[in-house]
Amino acid sequence: MIDISFFKEKKVFLTGHTGFKGAWLCHILINAGADITGYALEPPTNPSLFEQTGIEKKIRSIVGDIRNRDILIKSVREAKPEIIFHMAAQPLVRCSYREPVLTYETNVMGTINILEATRLTQSVKSFVNITTDKVYENKEWHWGYRENENLCGFDPYSNSKSCSELVTYSYKNAFFSDKNSPAISTARSGNVIGGGDYAADRIIPDCIRAASEEKEIVVRNPHSTRPYQHVLECISGYLLLAEKQYNNKPLAGAYNFGPDDEGCVTTGMLAELFCTAWGHDAIWRVQGDSGPHEANFLKLDCSKSKVVLGWKPRWGIKTAVEKTVEFAKVNTDNERLTCVERQIHEYFGEQYV
Asked: Distance between CA 102 and CA 115 in Å, rounded?
């Protein structure tokens, strides 16, 4: 289990802090007593969890584009962080088909830029690049991908994240191999759900929007299987990895953070779990479309994270959906902040103060 107190007074630099996962990570680090600098574009959605829960007032927040190398390097060097979490990305598969150049510029060159900033900043001791389960060459087999499997995402989003992994691997070997250089790792997580995700073309946000308007939920690919997990599951892995390699550099590497087998469910099963948790006669139906290619079956093998880091998932898929619905049903920003804080306390236990 992660020792949250490790981050007290640690200087942390976080790219993508205005996004869904970034906002959750900010809340954990704020309450841990970390000194946080965030670097990102304006929140990618309206509404956004970042604005609803008042994060900007509690950290040093820089509005900047990860593609702007000079400003990014200047920001990192001025912050003098000990730990960097790189989360800034163009994260949507369908958007990557519409805007492939933007996707590659953000996800590949953005990674190069933050690694350059790390290379030029002597204070950094621990660097974690957050990618995705979709970095693997998907062979549609029914067992989980391990960290040593081939990297070759199919669509522009997935492929750009595979490239981000390869860039990180190269920088790690070329520039961060001596004993005094920072520990460099990549973290690959499954499909994340949780309160405050307002993105388009994601199954749970789409379910919430439809159910809130008392409309039928439309599911495009009900038989596609994905490793669904609550946002706190993967974030606990990122935090644990950052801590462990900070103190023991040889632990650095690539790690999967995904659910156990019960969390690998079809989109139809997830929609059914959502309808049960939502109540009020929520229903879903299938509506096929002629959208771009997406993987049919995807699953992670997280044995390495469990054995090497001592990480393990705590909330099953049913709990993850219920926690997401709980947030979706509150009505004010104060209630949303309270809900986020309560769920973090429930997940991390008494050590989270």
From this structure: 19
CA 144 to chain centre: 19
pTM over 0.90: yes
CA dist list (Å): 241 to 17, 151, 267, 310, 348: 18, 21, 29, 10, 16
Asked whether the beta carbons of 188 and 241 are under 8 A apart, the reply is no
Cα torsion through 75, 344, 58, 113, rounded to 10: 10
CA distance 353 to 334: 19
- Beta-strand relationship, 225-230 and 264-266: antiparallel
Say which residue the tokens 């976080």 belong to.
14
Distance between CA 272 and CA 89 in Å, rounded? Answer: 30
Query: Judging by DSSP bridges, how do beta strands 183-189 and 35-40 pair with one another?
Result: unpaired
Closest CA to 134 of 161, 156, 169: 161
Predicted confidence (pLDDT) per residue in 67-120, tens digit: 999 999 999 999 999 999 999 999 999 999 999 999 999 999 999 999 999 999
**Which two structure tokens, joined as six digits, stand for 113?**
């830029």
pLDDT greater at residue 271 or residue 350: 271
Radius of gyration of the chain (CA): 19
Compute the distance between CA of residue 145 and CA of residue 301 in angstroms, rounded to an integer: 5
Two tokens at 45? 């959605």
Sign of the torsion angle spanned by Cα atoms 333, 259, 238, 312: positive
